[in-house]
Design goal:
Strand content: 35-45%
Organism: Actinomadura algeriensis
CATH architecture: Beta Barrel
Number of helices: 3
Helix content: 10-25%
Number of domains: 1
CATH class: Mainly Beta
Number of strands: 12
Protein name: Scramblase
Radius of gyration: 15 Å
Structural class: mainly beta
CATH superfamily: LURP1-related
Mean pLDDT: 83
InterPro entries: Scramblase, Tubby-like_C
Largest sheet: 12 strands, antiparallel, barrel
Pfam family, one: Scramblase
Low-confidence stretches: 43-57
Order of helices and strands: EEEHEEEEEEEEHEH
Distance between the termini: 39 Å
Strand order of the largest sheet: 1-2-3-4-5-6-7-8-9-10-11-12
Amino acid sequence: MSEAFSSPVLKVEQPRRGPFAKSKYRVIDGDGTTVAVADETDRRRGDAIRTAFPGKSDLDARAVLLSTPEGEPLLVVDKQKGRALTEVRRPDGDVVGSFVTQRVGRRYVLHDPDGTVLGDVDVDIPRNNFAVRDANGKKVAHVRKKWAGVVTHLLTTADKYDVEIFDPVPEPLRTMAAMTAIVMDMNLHESKDIT
């Protein structure tokens, strides 16, 4: 695990931007220090057209690169096209783990690089609370999406998440728990586009 995500309490914030701004995040530790920033990477052909004529962004492939505030690459969150698979990788391409959709918007199974089940993410009906559990069903983290108000929700991409990790959590499950807010946002909450 990167030292950047070692705090048991993290906040993940998406800056307030118009409805077409996507995949920018700031990760803050329990002391209020920005430990990582994320921005969309690996821009694919046709992105300019999708920005002008957006569709359901939760179906588009996209990747974000998390870096230290100084620019040192930490992790890549790579959401494949559709809703079936999101991988967390190191900058060198090695897979840390994956979120595999079992029930869209309700349950995601966490796998290690070899495909072994690490645990799962259980999602509540409003898609605001995410319980991360290990392979034995023990809750190891809780992620909560904060309500920002109607105007912010409808007209911007601004979302805020609180992440609480119940240490000790073994790797790579701990890193996957820390990345849950960004993965769930990319899979469930970026489809605010006008269609």
